[in-house]
Amino acid sequence: xxxxxxxxxxxxxxxxxxxxxxxxxxxxxxxxxxxxxxxxxxxxxxxxxxxxxxxxxxxxxxxxxxxxxxxxxxxxxxxxxxxxxxxxxxxxxxxxxxxxxxxxxxxxxxxxxxxxxxxxxxxxxxxxxxxxxxxxxxxxxxxxxxxxxxxxxxxxxxxxxxxxxxxxxxxxxxxxxxxxxx
Length: 182
Prior knowledge:
By secondary structure, the chain is mainly alpha-helical. Helix content is about 75%, strand content about 0%.
């Protein structure tokens, strides 16, 4: 097992930071490991020392959001059914604002997401979260939840267009209107 040093950790963090910027600017598919290495000021071999390939870099970029979604799903699992939809709406809204830059990366990866097993946990947790947002097993409710989440993720892609408060208000209002129980 490799010994982790502060310098190695700094290099790893810089690779992840630069990859996030490149994935947002050019897209995941258009960004190469060499692009990431150049932006991080290291060699491609250094990137490959820290990560097994571009999917592993993607997983590291998405890790903070994936951990937050996993924690939210864990919390929802522990709640009584009557409380889950409201809690899911509130927390999804918070997470969408907090991780708004990641949404751009996720949107770009969706067409090939099945080919990226490194983020399978995030995908599974995202599906579970959508089910909690739906608030029922009804097919229409679940389809509305998917529609709402996809639309809101699209809105989160453009960080400069709305303030955090505007985005939070939009997410909360949209989810409540689309998913309200009559």
